[in-house]
Amino acid sequence: MFYASPPVFDGPEDRNGRRNHDEAAFWLRLLEGGLSMPPPAGPFVILGQTSLDPMDGDGRPEALRALLDHPALQDPKPRGDHGRVDPGQAGDAALDTALYDGLGGLRVSVILPSADLVVRDAAVLWPPDSDPMAATLAAASRHSPIWVDLALP
Q1: Who contacts 72 (Cβ-Cβ below 8 Å, separation ≥6)?
Q2: Could you tell me whether strands 146-151 and 2-3 are parallel, antiparallel, or unpaired per DSSP bridges?
Q3: 108 CB contacts (<8 Å, ≥6 apart)?
Q4: 3-state secondary structure the chain
Q5: Engineering a disulfide at 42: which of 26, 47, 116, 119 sits with its beta carbon 3.0 to 4.6 angstroms away?
Q6: Does 32 have pLDDT greater than 90?
């Protein structure tokens, strides 16, 4: 599990942007055997708050994109419908996991099962406004929960 630093809120040196990039790059190095510990044996899941959208917003998305595409992992791309349209959004709005005023919807949370697991289903929980859970979730966070149903070996 990981919770990456936001890639913003700094100056032209871009320390936070570089730190966020390196937090995703850590997982790539681990999976490729580039650290002092061996890569994880399957089955496993990497899950976390990336604080970065692979397509939209500020930051250095190269390492995150490589992680999402890594052959040792699968990206089940949990989908949901928050009912909002953000002009200029490059990524698929159904993959958004958080809504920000001014920035729009972003995919900033991931669950990445190892390639040897079977994904049965996945989604982002965006209940309709008429659902009592919608108010509770909105009060708790601008982030919506994501889930993945896996068939364990």
Answers
A1: 31, 39, 42, 114, 115
A2: unpaired
A3: 49, 50, 51, 52, 53, 97, 98, 143
A4: CEECCCCCCCCCCCHHHHHHHHHHHHHHHHHCCCCCCCCCCCCCEEEEECCCCCCCCCCCCHHHHHHHCCCCECCCCCECCCCCCCCCCCCCHHHCCEEECCCEEECCEEEEEECCCEEEEEEECCCCCCCHHHHHHHHHCCECCEEEEEECC
A5: 116
A6: yes
Quick one: CA dihedral 16, 139, 2, 28, positive or negative? negative
The pair of three-digit structure tokens given for residue 79, joined into one six-digit string: 């989908």
Give mean pLDDT, residues 100-111: 92
Tokens of 82: 């928050």
Q: Which two tokens stand for residue 24?
A: 């995703």
